[in-house]
Specification:
Elements: H1 2-47, H2 63-79, H3 81-95, E1 100-103, H4 106-117, H5 119-126, H6 128-141, E2 143-150, E3 157-162, E4 167-173, E5 176-192, E6 199-209, E7 221-222, E8 225-226, E9 233-237, H7 252-275, E10 278-284, H8 287-298, E11 319-324, H9 345-355, H10 370-374, H11 378-408, H12 413-416, E12 427-430, H13 439-451, H14 463-473, H15 479-503, H16 515-536
Helix pairs in contact: 2-3, 3-6, 3-11, 4-11, 5-6, 7-9, 13-14, 14-15
Length: 537
């Protein structure tokens, strides 16, 4: 009876084991299936940035995908030297020599100067450091959202930029996708408790109108969120295509290649580090005892805690490999069989292509020549000049808005002097040349253009234009201030010449009454111009 019971128990145990095996098999299958599903999920997460998931017919990145690109681009700018070098170098070429902003209207110039000198604007845009950093932001993030805050009393304007990550949606005219109306901003504002000193995050959402949007109706809210009518936004974007509402970071196409180049050099450094692991080789014929004796002989006593001076210092570089007869240690032969550090050049060239810069800009002076040392290749020069033209447009748009607010405010400086015209203000924005050409060659070209290779002035340009060209070529700072001083001098000279002509026979204020006198005055003016050129030279 007991035998049958034992047999039955054994069958039950085998059945339980079979069931357990089936459960384990199912778990293993589920694990493999889970791994496959996770891989598909990761792929889906990685691919979701390649198309918008709503309403844009696969023309743009999704907002979540674009946010990932922003984060990745920020990190690569801060960490990867190739990305940082390219972004910083372009910012230097664009802004390192500064910019001149002038107006022929003295009152408009006063408004511009006040805006540029405002410390609140200097930390954001108008100082040299702020402008350089804004160029870096534009490359790394692909978008700048300038928000304006205007004093209703005197029209004084303060500019700030909104982080692109906070702009969740750009609402455009339903009948014209190129006409933005609102920017939906979602952010977290820290609220300070003065009693405890702690800050509490407060979720916020608001709509900001576009700078050029003239709404027939001005609702206070959209979908329950406030509309910041007094703080319009000016959007500047680069990268991407013309039918995309958000810009794409200019660093994006180079990030993968910069990573690959970094990984290649890390692998190469690992091999070199392995070579340095052992610097000496010692073969002992004494078996284990001989090896132990050699090890003790070569060992250092620095860490023994002894008060006696060190008598057996360790080798300065590397370690010693000790082996008995028949044992050997050799490094992996890499010469001709594997890669060297220079083999990563093709990866570097892809980074260069992504940024549109020559290889010499990234530290390899061996590819440079005397010509590249004194000048830029034409595509790179045009790339930087194109960005300067973009910034001219940006600054002009901002300053035109600043002038318009001074005209419309009750106590605005321009309104107080009666200048309320809606016409565009006369504003000139001038960048110095990117390349430092030979000054003598520039001066010779200016003289040739002014005189048409003759000695007297050929009247091809007025005195003010000619003076600006000369002063810019000489690198004189504050050109407009010098021109203002010269204007006073020119007016005095013209007045003196008119008075002298009036006192001549047949004068009476009209030197052309006598042809001989008119010819003499003309010769005098040409002589004065020639003398001025010699003095300037």
């Amino acid at each position: 009876m007991s035998f049958l019971q034992d047999l039955l128990r054994l069958r039950e145990t085998n059945s339980e084991l079979t069931q357990l095996r089936e459960v384990v098999g199912q778990l293993e299958s589920n694990e493999e299936l889970l791994k496959e599903n996770l891989a598909e999920l990761e792929l889906a997460v990685d691919n979701q940035g390649w198309q918008r998931l709503f309403g844009e017919f696969e023309r743009e990145f999704s907002r979540g995908g674009l946010a990932q690109i922003f984060r990745m681009s920020r990190l690569m700018f801060l960490k990867n030297p190739l990305v940082n070098r390219a972004v910083t170098l372009q910012a230097i070429y664009v802004w390192a020599q500064g910019v001149q902003i002038t107006s022929t209207d003295e009152d408009v110039q006063a408004v511009i100067d006040a805006f540029l000198a405002d410390k609140r604007n200097q930390v954001e845009l108008t100082s040299h450091q702020a402008r350089t950093m804004k160029e870096q932001d534009l490359q790394v993030l692909g978008n700048l959202f300038f928000a304006f805050f205007v004093s209703p009393a005197d029209g004084a304007t303060v500019v700030r930029t909104l982080p692109p990550e906070e702009i969740q949606e750009i609402v455009c005219n339903p009948e014209d996708a190129k006409e933005p109306w609102f920017y939906k901003r979602t952010w977290t504002a820290p609220v300070l408790d003065f009693a405890s000193g702690n800050t509490t995050p407060k979720p916020m959402t608001a709509y900001y109108p576009d700078l050029d949007y003239s709404a027939a109706a001005r609702p206070n809210s959209i979908g329950g969120y406030p509309v910041m009518w007094d703080s319009p936004v000016y959007h500047v974007r680069v990268g991407g295509l013309s039918d995309m509402r958000f810009g794409v970071p200019e660093t994006y196409q180079s990030i993968d290649w910069a990573r690959a180049y970094n990984a290649f050099l890390e692998d190469w450094a690992t091999i070199v580090r392995a070579y340095a692991r052992f610097a000496f080789k010692l073969t002992s014929a004494g078996g284990k005892q001989g090896i132990a004796a050699a090890k003790a002989k070569l060992g250092t006593t620095y860490a023994s805690g002894s008060a006696s001076p060190e008598t057996n210092p360790a080798p300065l570089v590397g370690s010693t490999f000790i082996a008995g007869q028949g044992a050997d240690l050799q490094p992996v032969k890499t010469a001709g069989a594997t890669t060297s550090a220079d083999d990563a050049r093709r990866l570097l060239l892809m980074v260069c292509a992504g940024f549109g810069m020559p290889e010499s800009f990234f530290g390899d002076v061996s590819v440079g020549t005397l010509a590249t040392a004194k000048s830029l290749d034409r595509p790179t020069e045009l790339k930087f000049r194109d960005r300067q033209e973009l910034w001219k447009s940006v600054l002009d748009t901002i300053l035109q808005y600043v002038v318009a607010r001074s005209r419309s405010a009750a106590s605005g400086k321009l309104r107080m002097v009666g200048k309320q015209s809606t016409e565009r203000a006369p504003i000139e924005i001038h960048f110095p040349p990117i390349l430092e050409h030979d000054i003598a060659e520039q001066m010779a070209a200016i003289v040739s253009g002014a005189t048409l290779n003759g000695s007297p002035n050929a009247s091809t340009m007025d005195r003010e234009t000619l003076s600006k060209l000369i002063l810019n070529a000489l690198g004189v700072p504050n050109v407009q201030e010098v021109i203002d001083l010269l204007r006073v001098q020119w007016e005095e000279e013209d007045a003196q010449a008119a008075a002298a002509a009036a006192n001549l026979p047949g004068g009476g204020g009209d030197p052309t009454a006598d042809p001989g006198v008119a010819e003499a005055v003309k010769g005098l003016r040409e002589a004065i111009d020639a003398l001025r050129k010699k003095v300037a030279a």
